[in-house]
Task: structure prediction
Amino acid sequence: MRDERRRERGLTLTEVTITIVLASVVMSGLVIFYLNSQGTWIDGSSQAITQREATLVLHEISTRAHEAAYATALGNPNATLTLGMSMHNNPSAWLIAWDPTDSLLHETYIDSTGVPHATGQMLQSKVATFSVSWDANMVRVDTLTLLTPQGTRITVWTAAELVNRGAP
Result:
């Protein structure tokens, strides 16, 4: 009878407990790794989106500056940039302004009759700093600092020539 009991196959309670504990440790490690990877991916994605928005704003400013006959700016840092156009004796202007109430950049088009047409916010990211300078030939975005949702600062700058300066 003793030989029959020895031949019986099965697991003891100790073996089952050890297996469950080891499986739990491995699963905990995998879950922690997954959550850390997810957090890193979200941080990287939000930085990439914010950088893309900054690039689009700088591109828009450069494009408008190339079309502009003059430039002015008020209140540095956190300025309002005005790029004026005078095509066929039909003056108009394009404004980009930092709004301290919502920390966003907004653009407004002013037609030849002087009527402003707000086109809305330029981006979704919050703006920490918007500093510009200009002279007769160039517009410079000295500092444009955007904040990611996690609070990381993305700082960019550019310069663009006023190609149509003095144009009628």
